Amino acid sequence: MLPDILILATSPTAAVNEQLERSYTCHHAWQVAPEQRAGWLRERAGRIRAVVTTGALGLKSEEMAALPALEIIAVTGVGLDGVDLDAARARGIAVTTTPNVLTDDVADVALGLLLATTRHIALLDRFVRDGGWERREPVKPASSLRGKTAGIFGFGQIGQAIALRLAAFGVQVRYYQPRAKPGVQAPRAASLLALAQESDYLIVCAPGTPATRHAVNAQVLDALGPQGTLVNIARGALVDEAAMISALAEGRLGAAGLDVFADEPRVPAALRALPNVVLTPHVGSLTVETRHAMGQLVLDNLQAHFAGRPLPTPVPFK
């Protein structure tokens, strides 16, 4: 008999979905209308041994409690802000993520957002489409990246991959995270506030945790200043969104490039109306190659678990 697994979010890769269907009895919650989901799940809850989810969807403690046979939570992505790790630890439920395989694509999007904001690419695209160039309307010069300083908040694999890319543009890099990163050449700022004060660009790469919620607050945004640019490819909760909107609207912050938001997929109308922002719908890892690799790593973790082998990418419980 195949193990029963609950799938909260489907993989965009057909090959991964086919492997899941061959290897497991799959229960696709995402296909069920929200108002019918609770009853649908109650009928299956006792058989569910694994949950496939995302970092944003996660799995809360009350949801785990409703799954008495649950053994493993396989997260597609690296974020864990939606997973109650304390509840998983208490139950002895394994948790896995899909690190490493998405690093380069997320770093590329961070650079794309930085270029799009500093060089006004999105604004200039609209300028051409709306006929401004043909009408010979004046174009405001953009800012060069060369010679600027980028502060990276969170200097893990993605932060370091962004740093490598910035070096090719002649951008100086410094970083902040609570613990110094051994073996890196980039200097570490004394605090996040100091990092913003020392930087032209602030790129947010830190994990979404209770400790980092609204870490980029009004004080940090004011320190970045009216010529500064904020790029966030981590989690929307790391930035005080209301404070950011006010700073952008009042000219206390120069620009922002955002792939993540506080209440996805809802983006405040006030933010969408601002001309000095570039917005993308949380697509940092959305390439064919990376999404396939992420899905395959979810499969690898599930297969290892049910075969009694060591998990390829477990989340270590502290």
TrEMBL record:
One of its GO terms (cellular component) is cytosol. It comes from the Bacteria. Keywords: NAD, NADP, Oxidoreductase. Residues 111-284 form the D-isomer specific 2-hydroxyacid dehydrogenase NAD-binding domain. GO terms for molecular function: glyoxylate reductase (NADPH) activity; hydroxypyruvate reductase [NAD(P)H] activity; NAD binding. Residues 32-315 form the D-isomer specific 2-hydroxyacid dehydrogenase catalytic domain. Belongs to the D-isomer specific 2-hydroxyacid dehydrogenase family. This is Lactate dehydrogenase.
